[in-house]
Amino acid sequence: MKIGVPKEIKNNESRVGMTPAGVFELTKNNHIVFVQSTAGDGSGFFDEDYRNVGAIIVKSIEEVYSLSEMIIKVKEPIAEEYPQIKPHHILFTYFHFASSEELTVAMLKSKAVCIAYETVEDTDGSLPLLTPMSEVAGRMAIQQGAKYLEKPIKGRGVLLGGVPGVPPGRVLVLGAGVVGVQAAKMAAGLGAHVTILDTNMKRLRYVNDVMPSHVVTEFSSEYNIRQHIKDHDLIIGGVLIKGSKAPKLITREMLKEMRPGTVIVDVAVDQGGCFETTVPTTHENPTYIIDDVIHYCVANMPGAVPYTSTMALTNVTLPYVLLLANLGWENACENDKSLAKGLNIVHGKCVYKEIIDAFDWSENHLVAEI
Prior knowledge:
The protein has two domains: about 1-120 and about 305-370, NAD(P)-binding Rossmann-like Domain (Rossmann fold), CATH 3.40.50; about 130-305, NAD(P)-binding Rossmann-like Domain (Rossmann fold, 3-Layer(aba) Sandwich). Helices cover about 30% and strands about 15% of the residues. The chain is built from twelve helices and 15 strands. The two termini are about 30 Å apart.
């Protein structure tokens, strides 16, 4: 199969869809891999590294799309890429369709096959291709939140770990999934007091077992959230409903209950955000302030640490890429039910129920109906 790895063109996105090690495995299996020149530079992988493992370096993104049958990316295509996507293409990337009707409609009109990393699902309900980026984002949420708590950037002026004689900062984590657990682990490591909320008691029991005593678990309810936002310095939103929009757990009016300089980090921004006031931001302009509350809502947080993120992503995507390349998408999805759950759009039809529900579409939503 002819496989293309374009350069990511989303704002400040330095990751790349495949490492040279991944390309080596593909060429070893007699596939042809086209890599756009400088696509890997931001992650520390250079054209010569790809050439050395058998990739063909091409100059433009247009060449990558025109020469390839399958496109391996990190982030969803943006508007200027839409015209490049044709019916014969298989796109394998993060899409997060439920948060963007414009993107969903564009991919329906392209009639390409769109397989979303974030909905590939193992038999135990875990999301193997989302997990590594959730791990990165959960850890980064604390790193970024701690920075924006500093007074020069309008934060409360709180050191999360405190010092002898001064109590540590307080961190509220909404959601005890992968993001929430990683955020709690990082915050606890800094010495902060952590409260983690979830409605899943099984997850709360797990967190209670593995975390130190200064990480406290509580059942998530609107009442509990309203109580905790009054005295916590940093709030992390890490809730996820597979393939669907995130629920809005903190409303605009609730911001008035927070102390000035509180920082909120919405890791669920790719799925529409779990704060009512969430607006996607970029690494270039990562924050904004509403009611004296600092919002950090960067939609591609792991893009700030592209070497780590690209390595972690290729580790988990490569087996599926090889399966798709070796068997074709239909046989691959027939043979691997986890991969089949990644199918979101197939030749002009939306086949993932949560996306249909997100936009109140009919079950047979076709391009002709748009």
